[in-house]
Amino acid sequence: MNFYGEALSIKDNLVYWRREFHMHPELGYEEVNTSSIIKKFLRENGIEYYETAKTGICAFIKGNGSKTIGIRADIDALPIEDKKTSSYASKIQGMMHACGHDAHASILMGTAFILNKYKENLKGNVKLFFEPAEETTGGAKVMIKESVLENPYVDGIIGLHVDENILSGKIGIKKGVVNAASNPFIIKIKGKGAHGARPQDSVDPIFIGSSVILNLQSIISRELPPTQPAVITIGTFHGGTAQNIIPEEVEITGIIRTMTVEHRKYVIKRFKEIVEGMVKSLRGQCIIEVEESYPCLYNDEGMYDSFLNSASKVINRDDIIHLSNPSMGVESFAYFAMERPAVFYYLGVRNEEKGIIHAAHSNLFDIDEDSMMLGVALHCQAAQDFLDNR
């Protein structure tokens, strides 16, 4: 089957869907119009589906066999003002598809169209996951809780993300750990307020907070192997009302990013120990909140090898970039990968001749729409090969 040729034949549809989504972006759990477009497409093509995770969709293509492959796309946008001058720039003030989820959804729709067209040739089933709220809390968690991986049981799952640093026509893939785990945190430190000229009367929470921040970095620099990346970033430090007043309390927020389950547990444990120890030693009190956010994303070894074999049927091996380093960014596909063998890859969308060079999550972000056909073809080939491999 020439899946790339099939994808080329629906290029106009892919571009139309992507631009419709791009012009009408919606934030997490508000993707009502986005979902309606997807559901209309599914109904018109006789593809079964049901709603999940508020605005998410689980669709199902029944082939000839019990094995089932899942394919996922996220569908939400970001609260960013679109400053492109293109005809398909966002029409919604303050919202934009600045991370390529419009392309992800369109690619999955194209994949569904082709696989449904040839479903009699499939030696198993295909489940299609349109995930809401990836940019916030992760609709994947809710979808899994609502049993999208069951009935029928999903044996493996595939996902992609567009990448503006990889040239259009190429893909990137990483063996093992792909994305970091995330733990946002809040530290509230309470001391004793006083006049700025009489610090001896205070328990200064600003001084305590500053000491905490400095000492937290020792976890990264002195307690983890330098070959294993991890990050503790302080994003905000709030406290005080005037130059000559030592405040009673301060609040510090930030994120922890780690690359393994073991390091995640260790860093959180040491984080709490250091904060509590420093604050107590400097006569203050503290409250620590560490959120259990997105886990690490791992590519399953068998799924990784299978996908590489499939990809080599669609593009030249020279166009497959084997990524050396994982991303410190997070990805809610990790929730699916924790439940089933999974593979996640990056689809190149950069095209300097077309001026498509801007970073994701920026107000000039765009993609080379010619890249979408490759994403469709890769999804289709990988799904067929997975189902063929008994």
From TrEMBL:
Xref: SUPFAM superfamilies: Bacterial exopeptidase dimerisation domain, Zn-dependent exopeptidases
Q: Which Pfam families has this protein been placed in?
A: M20_dimer, Peptidase_M20
Q: Which residues form the Peptidase M20 dimerisation domain?
A: 186-276
In terms of Gene3D superfamilies, this protein maps to: 3.30.70.360, Zn peptidases (3.40.630.10)
Q: What domain of life is recorded for the organism?
A: Bacteria
InterPro entries tied to this protein: Amidohydrolase, Bact_exopeptidase_dim_dom, Peptidase_M20, Peptidase_M20_dimer
Kindly provide the name given to this protein in its UniProt entry: M20 family metallopeptidase
Organism, by scientific name, is Clostridium malenominatum
